């Protein structure tokens, strides 16, 4: 099982590398990794399990964060209490094929399991994206996402290209945003 010990932190070069595209079929080791990454997100969102194993809660985890430089990330965005997740899948070789001009940012800024400090500021991303990706079985998906799930997927896709959320923050004016951009509560 993946715990915080397995998650590498800023300063590790793997987080700044361009991850390699996956080829299908995935190896047994890659399938196991996909399973373990999703299990980490589930565990991290379960208060009892998270406390027991000292897991920090996350909605996304990319393979480079566990020191595997491969274009694969798990995303688990919970829905309203008792309802289905807004988005749950392990995305392989994801590409944003189109996006809104309108930007959006989380009102409280972003956190990252690989960053052990608070970096305040708006991380302005695309509010809506069309995402093409493969699931772990090699089936192609083309989906539209907006708001929080779109933000999370963009954060995770950034990891596959060596980008960290604070690269997008204007550190001189961390909470300045275009009027047209959406603030997601
Ligand atoms: C407990 C159980 C306040 C501060 C609000 C917690 C289940 C920040 C937000 C969670 C913030 C769950 C999250 C991300 C932010 C902040 C990620 C809590 C887990 C909220 C996810 C990848 C950025 C994603 C909204 C510095 C580890 N996640 N909060 N950002 N949640 N979580 N990111 N921002 N301010 N990071 O962090 O998984 S995209 Cl689900
Ligand atoms: Ni991250």
TrEMBL record:
It catalyses: N-terminal N-formyl-L-methionyl-[peptide] + H2O = N-terminal L-methionyl-[peptide] + formate. Its EC number is 3.5.1.88. Binds 1 Fe(2+) ion. Its cofactor is Fe(2+). InterPro entries: Peptide_deformylase, Peptide_deformylase_sf. Fe cation binds at residues 112, 155, 159. It holds the Pfam family Pep_deformylase. GO terms for molecular function: metal ion binding; peptide deformylase activity. GO terms for biological process: translation. Keywords: Hydrolase, Iron, Metal-binding, Protein biosynthesis. It comes from the Bacteria. The keyword Electron transport does not apply. The active site is at residue 156. The keyword Transmembrane helix does not apply. Belongs to the polypeptide deformylase family. Removes the formyl group from the N-terminal Met of newly synthesized proteins. Requires at least a dipeptide for an efficient rate of reaction. N-terminal L-methionine is a prerequisite for activity but the enzyme has broad specificity at other positions. This is Peptide deformylase. It comes from Loigolactobacillus coryniformis subsp. coryniformis CECT 5711. The lineage of its organism: Bacteria, Bacillati, Bacillota, Bacilli, Lactobacillales. The gene is def.
């Amino acid at each position: 099982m993946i715990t915080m010990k397995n998650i590498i932190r800023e300063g590790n070069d793997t987080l700044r590398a361009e991850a390699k595209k996956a080829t299908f079929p995935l190896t047994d080791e890659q399938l196991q990794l996909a399973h373990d990454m999703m299990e980490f997100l589930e565990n991290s969102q379960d208060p009892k399990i998270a406390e027991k194993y000292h897991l920090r809660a996350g909605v996304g985890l990319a393979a480079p964060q566990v020191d595997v430089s491969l274009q694969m990330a798990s995303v688990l965005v919970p829905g309203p209490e008792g309802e289905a997740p807004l988005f749950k899948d392990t995305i392989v070789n994801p590409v944003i094929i189109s996006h809104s001009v309108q930007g959006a940012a989380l009102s409280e800024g972003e956190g990252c399991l690989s960053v052990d400090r608070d970096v305040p500021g708006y991380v302005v991303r695309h509010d809506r994206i069309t995402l093409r990706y493969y699931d772990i079985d090699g089936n192609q998906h083309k989906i539209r996402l907006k708001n929080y799930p779109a933000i999370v997927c963009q954060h995770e896709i950034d990891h596959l290209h060596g980008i960290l959320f604070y690269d997008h923050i204007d550190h001189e004016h961390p909470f300045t945003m275009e009027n047209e951009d959406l603030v997601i509560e």
